[in-house]
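Team,

Forwarding the record for the chain on the shared tracking sheet. I've put the sequence and predicted structure together so nobody has to dig through attachments.
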Amino acid sequence: MKFENKFDIGTGCYTTADIAKILHVPYSKVHTWMVIYWDGKLGKELGRNYSWQAGNSKAVSFHTLVEFYVMMLLSEAGVKPKEVLKAHTVLSETYNTPFPFARKELLSGIKTDGKRIYLHFEGTTIDLDGSGQLNLDFIKTFFKNLDFDGNEIASRFWPMGRKSSIVVDPERKFGHPIIDGHNIYPEVLNGMYKAGDAPEFIAALYDISPKAVKDAIAYCQAA
């Protein structure tokens, strides 16, 4: 379960501010997830940090960003952070991976009743609090905004949902959110819109659809 906590081409590089913007959550919450939970409690379990130093800030890889996304969804479902950490630890140890929440085979079986997290896998359902007790109160799946590669590891993330043109791909532009099919930052399009240019003019200038421009504006406004 060893892994390198450093930047590498194709793995993405996301600071606390980047993650807060992409996931639309407070900076302080992301900082807590990164420093106290992943580097702290989970890092101690693995004997390593999940983050690395990036200038004056800390940064993590795309797969940790995906795990923070799952953390956000579980939090929205009412699950306490300590239960998420328990589930992460059990899954990490059972499946020998530092990023269990980035694996399709595990995400497809993860459910919650709003209090605890459960895994239905290979015909068996277990409570991921470490007790292994059975419970069948399921309410949520967690990978609707994720794409997976041939190894069923998360490879792309759609922060505004699949109907939006904004995608996070660690193999393009160092993982910065871009317009799908183009290496265009949404902030560039939003800047032109704020300067007074109409979406249709911006779309014609960059040879993209007006919808892509509007998606970029919506993404930036949400952030």
